[in-house]
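Researcher: Predict the fold of Aminopeptidase.
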Amino acid sequence: MSKAIEHQQLSKFKNSLENRANHKVLERAVTKNGIYTTSADYRSEVNMTPVFSIDLDTGDVANQKQSGRCWMFAALNTMRHDMKNKFNMPKDFELSQNYTFFWDKLEKANYFYENVINTASLPTSDRKVSFLMTTPQQDGGQWDMIVAIIEKYGVVPQSAMPETFNSSASREFNSTFDLKLRKDAVTLRNLVANGASEKELEDTKEKMLDDAYRMLAYSFGEPPAHFDFEYRDSDKKYHIDRNITPIDFFNKYVGWNLDDYVSIINGPTADKPFNHMYTVEMLGNVVDGRQVRHLNVDMATFRDVAVKQLQSGESVWFGCDVGQSSDRQKGIMDTELYHKDELFDIDLSISKAERLDYGESLMTHAMVLTGVDLVDGEPTKWKVENSWGKKVGTDGFFVMSNDWMNEYCYQIVVNKKFLSEKLQEVLNEEPKVLAPWDPMGALA
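Model: Structure tokens for Aminopeptidase follow.
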């Protein structure tokens, strides 16, 4: 039964407000300064001093600029951190984010076409079809998706494929590319409806991908098949590696067994019991490539494996809801940063599971853990390498409170050797398939 707001109720609300002490003071403060400034707590800044008992030297921060490639930057940053230690790379060395961006876009187009064909018998009003058409592709992704790209195409240094206007500011390209993909979806769905053969569909899709490759080459430049890697290390010693391929470059200079690195999530919702594997329907980029797989664990385990990897000297890729209780300029992420509940005298508490179930939170950004402050063996705050350049935080690094991690961190990537034997066995479990719109399928 619906009921409108009555004038009698409005009078009651007005009287309730006027009977509150200091309501005029608070009204002036909030209307003049906004909610965040008025509710900010300076003690958070004091508690989030950027000093850590474990602090990895990772070099300069990168800058994704006006693009949504944080997941890609974070993954490539963890790899360049290791390269810095192995090969004494200069502190400003970066792997090419534009190179992996190009291939991710092309593979996402093919992944989209396959999903369009697979759902072509469903009406456009079906939720899955609507989900596909809402965002045919985007800049974001997850760890397993960058692994799928690297396993197929390798990596290159930024000198071999530098940034372009469109890689650093991707809005124009995404708008145009999505238009093309939706137009192509109309064609593919019509072909299926008219009984087209598998060969006709494949030939049509190949022409669409040829067009996509051209659009990408014009916008990002064409990826190198081989290149010369020339650099001076931190001691100014000269090095050159001639005519190397991207796959060989990855094997020689990164050299990771990517199968060793697994996605750990903390999704405490009723539909995802801990200590089990999960995947998300229609989530990925490379058809027949690495599947997105998550091991869901409790928060104590989540923190413990992150600490262990940092203690071993290796940084940690992680995904979170960066906009919650954070100050971009100061580089602070802390649940005590703002007290909006006290400001409005309203209970705004909601559990992590409830935030996920009711759309209040999901993973929006990926960064890298590069340090942690341990007190009596327990983490109190974490050092975070962001990819927003040096002008925010402390030279681009942020401080995250342990409580903020508990509430707003959803994913880390760790070497499976840091997991217990029991959890390593769970990694072999057939994952439960979650709906395409599940919050654990959010792209950072």
